[in-house]
Amino acid sequence: MRRALAIAAVAFLPLASIPTAAQAAAEPDDRQQAFTAAAAEFKVPESVLLGVSYLESRWDAHAGQPSNNAGFGPMHLTDAASFTASNHHGESEEDARGDESRPLAAPAETPAPAEIPASLRTIEKAAELTGESREKLRADDAANIRGGAALLADYQKSLGAPLSDDPAEWYGAVAKYSGAEESQAAKVFADEVYSTIKEGADRVTDDGGRVVLKPVPGLEAVEKWLEKLGLRPPRRDGVECPPTISCEWIPAAYAQLPNDDYGHYDLADRPVSQKVDYIIIHDMEGYWAPSVKLNQDPKWPGSWHYSVRSSDGHIAQQIKTKDVGWQAGNWYINAKSIGIEHEGFLAEGSTWYTEAMYRSSAKLVRYLALRHGVPLDRAHILGHDNVPGTLPTTVKGMHEDPGPFWDWAHYFELIGAPLHQFGGPRSGSIMIKPDFATNKPYFYGCDRKNPENACPPLPASTVWLRTEPRADAPLIKDIGKHPTGDSLYSVYDHSARATTGQRFAVADRQGDWTAIWYLGQKAWFHNPASAPTAVPSMGLVVTPKPGLATVPVYGRAYPEKEAYPAGIPYQAVTPLQYTFSAGEKYTLAGPAATEYYRAVTFEPEPHTVVKGKTKYLEIQFGHRVMFVKADDVRVTFSG
């Protein structure tokens, strides 16, 4: 969501120049050697250096681009101080509450930029310790790894701990590397690192080389050094989080405001009043601490349940899950969802998310999904960019986060619900699933100063959709996002993109190309057998009932007029600008509850859930999910 604005918006840094031949000759020739050399130079156990790097970046360098909290390189050295504050304009501004009967006003003023904490400027200390420039520490893998090793050694010395060959003695330094201010957050980070060291890891990194961390069995970390960090205990009373993550209660503000207004969420009694059906994944478009503070301002026009920090995965719960946050821009979805905000930016200022954040968020999502009965699939674990507009007039302004650089396949593996193939090669429906590491589609819009410039080639979870089965064919059109224009290759425009985990009905196949039904059109994407970008996924689909030429789609499943009791205004059931025709098919996610939550008062007593008899079904209609009336469609199995 675009709430942080000037608090934490950053200017994108250009890539540093390619090292000279002399520099390359003086440095290790692959990433594994760089870890070995840095560990020896600074007397850090190589397993510790590798374990810390894995939890930050999974050993990737990300083409020298910053993470969601200004971290660079395999060691995630943070350099927020090099960025300049500015407003973001890449993504449109939506009404976070998404209820046209009581629209939210824009904030009267944007909060001033916050002071940059030490945890977001570790590159400065790394430069001091290594003698390397900040530019080189950002862009050169070997220098970056040296910087991380130097920091770990410096942290170890500051604790009075020995520069031991025994990785067990480095627990305190590892905990300090997290940058956490809370004792539990530092401990969880260190525990994850040591779990990785014990189990080992092996993967091909983004430079095409292989890095291996050999398992260290029987490792028992010496936790006494953690006490010397002097960190504060988190405020954990009453949090709804699994015990395996670092989580604290930092309540969002709920207050009466002038003119019978209030902010900035609604009291409810879920799941007694309404079942939670969705979990919404956002990015903050800002840094963690300022965004948490915004959630404590009742006048700020938006709110969310959880805030996740990048460097260590620490989480602040800010609204109880029984209550309704103003977070998704669609009141129907808000009333039936839990919103989780992640530190960082969709693209402008960051292009990747840390492993620590992915792991912590995934554990939270699994816990919440099991607790509330939310299906662990991409029709119910939604990005903010998958939430539909409520009316034709709101479609264009809906948000695009967390964006194409969020690794949905890895995220679902961590959740414990991997996105699997289901069916044979000629299945009538497919799941989008490109290889994240090697799928690097063209985008522009990552550089604020030069918004038309191409983004660097970076891993992404999305595929482009075209009007014909050829690489130079135009992108398909989205009449809601672009009523009069074409879809864009902008990182902020999902109009012609399908994303990992989304299921679509197959419309056609030609050679290395597959067509799906998408927004009432045949949409083609490159899907060669040698490097598939989709997998078979059998399941139920919907198609118009015989005799119906077209079927309307909706952005919410609101009750019919007769369901509303006296005193509660009828909310019109208004179709969106899209339809689909006889012969088209769309994958079925399941039934959608026909409900409207009437909550317009500070006190919760008058709040009412209106339930209707009209039956709705949720479908994957485009990049966003949408709804159809069950009476308009026929459900069949697509094998």
From TrEMBL:
Enzyme class: hydrolase
Top-rank taxon: Bacteria
Catalytic activity: Hydrolyzes the link between N-acetylmuramoyl residues and L-amino acid residues in certain cell-wall glycopeptides
Region (Disordered): 85-120
GO molecular function: N-acetylmuramoyl-L-alanine amidase activity
Signal peptide: 1-24
Coiled coil location: none
SUPFAM superfamilies: Lysozyme-like (SSF53955), N-acetylmuramoyl-L-alanine amidase-like (SSF55846)
SMART domains referenced in this protein's UniProt entry, alphabetically: Ami_2
Pfam families documented for this protein: Amidase_2
EC number: 3.5.1.28
Assigned keywords, A-Z: Cell wall biogenesis/degradation, Hydrolase, Signal
InterPro entries: Amidase/PGRP_sf, Amidase_domain, Lysozyme-like_dom_sf, NAMLAA_amidase_2
Record-given protein name: N-acetylmuramoyl-L-alanine amidase
Lineage: Bacteria, Bacillati, Actinomycetota, Actinomycetes, Streptosporangiales
